[in-house]
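User: My collaborator sent over this chain with a note saying "see what the structure looks like." That's all I know about it. Can you take a look?
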Amino acid sequence: MVSRSYSNLLDLVSGDSPTFGRGGKKIPRVATVAGVLSELDDETSNSVTSDAPSSVSQDRMIIVGNQLPLRAHRSSDGSGEWCFSWDEDSLLLQLKDGLGEDVEVLYVGCLREQIDPSEQDDVAQTLLETFKCVPAFIPPELFSKFYHGFCKQQLWPLFHYMLPLSPDLGGRFDRSLWQAYVSVNKIFADKVMEVITPDEDFVWVHDYHLMVLPTFLRKRFNRVKLGFFLHSPFPSSEIYRTLPVRDELLRALLNSDLIGFHTFDYARHFLSCCSRMLGLAYQSKRGYIGLEYYGRTVSIKILPVGIHMGQLLSVLNLPETDSRVAELRDQFRGQTVLLGVDDMDIFKGISLKLLAMEQLLTQHPDKRGKVVLVQIANPARGRGRDVQEVQSETYATVTRINETFGRPGYHPVVLIDTPLQFYERIAYYVIAECCLVTAVRDGMNLIPYEYIICRQGNEKLDETLGLNPSTPKKSMLVVSEFIGCSPSLSGAIRVNPWNIDAVAEAMESALIVPEPEKQMRHEKHYRYVSTHDVAYWAHSFLQDLERACRDHVRRRCWGIGFGLGFRVIALDPNFRKLSVEHIVSAYKRTKNRAILLDCDGTMILQSSISTTPNTEAIGILNNLCGDPKNVVFVVSGKDKKTVTEWFSSCEKLGIAAEHGYFLRPSHDVEWETCLPVTDFDWKQIAEPVMKLYTETTDGSFIETKESALVWNYQYADPDFGSCQAKELLDHLESVLANEPVSVKSGQHIVEVKPQVSSSLRSV
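Assistant: Without extra context I'll predict from the sequence alone. Here is the result:
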């Protein structure tokens, strides 16, 4: 048996059309020959996929994440066999609801537990047949370097704005950890290769653990339909650019067809990095943001993930939840509960929240005995000294507050650092008057969403709490402005968590807001959260991924580059690769040849510090000019004095200076002008304006030519230079409106030159 992708390869090589359809039974695990077609130069075999579109609609999605949405444990019957079940809390499992019942979903990822090598084959077969999961078994030492090393010590802190200023802050860059990260991503790519049907399947990769995976998949299959979603923040360019492998990660992500972010800020930072480090510009067209990358359009998706409504509502209906709500009602009777639910890590701002509570009780003595902060502290996902420091500071602050403001029967802060059942956490949501999320940086944080749904409650909980079911529900949120869910919660009180006074004031405000306003805020939030759930998010992402991949079959693709520098060049179907043999043959047959050569950026590389053609280029030009059958012209944007100096040794070379305004067929002929322009008075108007923008834009300069004035901002800050260029263009068009000139913008330039009459253009 061979894989469908391998069979398509055989069909392509033999010249036959692929005959596999979707009607037959899938081959779940196959041996795959990787990267064969990337070595072929034939026009019909330049990609691993076929040129013909599939006649059957897509019905399979391969979801790739660091961890499979499974729980595992050894059997308790003494056999020692592994038992597996779905992890209902996993986002990867929950998003399946938005993909439609007709979409088959396969999962690729790691297991949380270490599986002995002797058991791996049996476990893999069981997971594939029972759960449609393909496990990636990573050796423990390699996984530790990958996850606890590069992911948690370098990427995760950096993406949360922590620079490695000392070994204790995030960890210095370690090349061996980076190599482990790449190796694990390669293993994931091999696992995807086992099950993918590249012409038809969609692949959805999740989070920063697998940021270079798109390159490995694109290298195997040039037209793979590939989406990536980043669940963490993406830092500003000033932070991200400190990463030694910054370009490799950006280029790897750009091998996706669609890149998703929770907020516009995260997307804006990514686009800024692409602009500043790779020189790529983005554009918004009909509501969609796209980056042009070697002929491919990489789409950008901005949509925060939602919660799983069905799971929350089912837990709300459990009798255990109702019983726990009744217990908490009695425990906190006569008191107002403020609730915090956070992981015990350095970015969740637990200590800042506690300090704000201390400030509230200090400034408002009337709140003592009446207000309680319940802080649920989940175990940290990472490990290290920073986690221990957070724990120590949290315990010390809680003890101090309770000793200062507490009394018999009243503890101002209730810290819960033991694992809770989901229904218990839900019960705390139900009885809390306000939810506080003061993280200093968080990719998304779904705690406020869960709180909103739980405060909506149900009839049974209303009865338990003694509420009138017909009375509108109410809730209050105090959220950090640095978390991903903040922009979608317009009715929340947004705070800077570092400002302890402001957080304390927000807590006070949340307590005294009139009931009708609490109800309106809750209604607004509930309407958004209940309609923008995880299914909506997944469905929307799949729709955009389908749109982004719509033109795959109509594109000709060539893979170029080595390692993580690999990328695909996508060209129009009518494009034909230039054949060197054909050109040489035609060159030898002809008796008269006109050869036009570009100069700037061709003979003189833009990345070179040298501003003159090298001796090799001059020698080639003289060889071409030495053939009497050849007429050779070099076209340059430089002035005639400069190009005369550059090509002084090429006596038979024709030169077009200032983009053809001046022409000289050979060295011993005088320069000619193509336009009889005598009026250059407009320069006296344009030049002072350009000088003004040059003075205010560091790195810009003016090129003064006989026929034109050019403002160049190639070496200026790209964002500021582009902004200034737009202003300069408008300014010049205004002051030169009555002059016989044209004002145009180009790549890093704004140029003013004489107008060309319609009669001359037609000539």
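A starting point for your reply to your collaborator: The two ends are 66 Å apart (CA to CA).
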